[in-house]
């Protein structure tokens, strides 16, 4: 039965990514959730990984649930040593046309995605193992510190989607593709890193060529280019 539920979850999630209209359930979840843990300002080091203390990675959200999922008591008394931890539920809501909803309930201070600076701009990286290795191979940059996350669009987009200038036309970009969107290896490897799925079928990955093999100069030059073109916007980044 458990295997059947996991398969149904995967099918529902992938189908939700395939719809032409990208819709996240941020607004709906804001009605039932209250953010109590907001990331601190990014650290000033280039992209250092800060050590995790067991007491810092316990679940401290006062609500008994994350979204609609009850929080196990052990998660409040014993920290989970993970960069990304998911609480997943499957429900049928006939009145909701969104096939998948996602919401973060706790962002552990200075943990989770790596904060750092790049080209004098403060940025947010995701460096879970499979995503990091895939990104290094994709761009041909073995010194890459992590995959860039979106830093514009406010709370609805920033920090929860792939950076548009790093990988365009991906289903997990914040903006809708005007041409053709793809379900790339960046997203499948993020699914692998959650630890929730027993197996991710590589045949689901669609080939992308935006920035592929362009090397470190491409990925590290993104913020420099953005600094030149949209300096005013860059100066407002990381204001909550």
From TrEMBL:
Q: Which organism is it from?
A: Ichthyophthirius multifiliis
- This chain belongs to which protein, by name? Leishmanolysin family protein, putative
Q: Which UniProt keywords apply?
A: Hydrolase, Metal-binding, Metalloprotease, Protease, Signal, Zinc
GO-annotated biological processes: cell adhesion; proteolysis
Pull one GO CC term from this UniProt entry: membrane
Q: Where is the signal peptide?
A: 1-16
Q: Which domain of life is it from?
A: Eukaryota
Spell out the family assignment given in the record's similarity comment: Belongs to the peptidase M8 family.
Q: Does the keyword Transmembrane apply?
A: no
Q: How is the cofactor bound?
A: Binds 1 zinc ion per subunit.
- List positions binding Zn(2+): 161
Q: What cofactor is needed?
A: Zn(2+)
For this protein, the Enzyme Commission number is 3.4.24.36
Coiled coil (residue ranges): none
């Amino acid at each position: 039965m458990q295997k059947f539920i996991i398969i149904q979850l995967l099918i529902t999630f992938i189908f939700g990514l395939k719809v032409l209209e990208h819709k996240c359930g941020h607004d709906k979840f804001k009605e039932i959730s209250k953010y109590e843990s907001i990331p601190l300002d990014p650290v000033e080091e280039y992209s250092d990984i800060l050590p995790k203390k067991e007491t810092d990675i316990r679940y401290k959200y006062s609500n008994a649930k994350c979204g609609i999922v009850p929080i196990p008591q052990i998660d409040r008394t014993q920290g989970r040593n993970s960069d990304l931890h998911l609480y997943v539920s499957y429900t049928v809501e006939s009145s909701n046309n969104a096939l998948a909803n996602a919401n973060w309930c706790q962002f552990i201070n200075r943990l989770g995605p790596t904060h750092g600076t790049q080209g004098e701009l403060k940025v947010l990286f995701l460096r879970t193992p499979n995503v990091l290795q895939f990104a290094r191979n994709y761009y041909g940059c073995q010194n890459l510190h992590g995959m860039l996350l979106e830093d514009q669009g406010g709370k609805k987009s920033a920090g929860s989607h792939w950076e548009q200038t790093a990988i365009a036309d991906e289903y997990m970009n914040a903006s809708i593709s005007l041409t053709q969107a793809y379900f790339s290896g960046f997203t499948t490897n993020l699914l692998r890193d959650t630890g929730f799925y027993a197996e991710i079928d590589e045949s689901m990955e669609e080939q992308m060529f935006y920035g592929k093999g362009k090397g470190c100069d491409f990925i590290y030059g993104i913020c420099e280019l953005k600094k030149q073109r949209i300096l005013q916007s860059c100066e407002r980044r990381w204001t909550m």
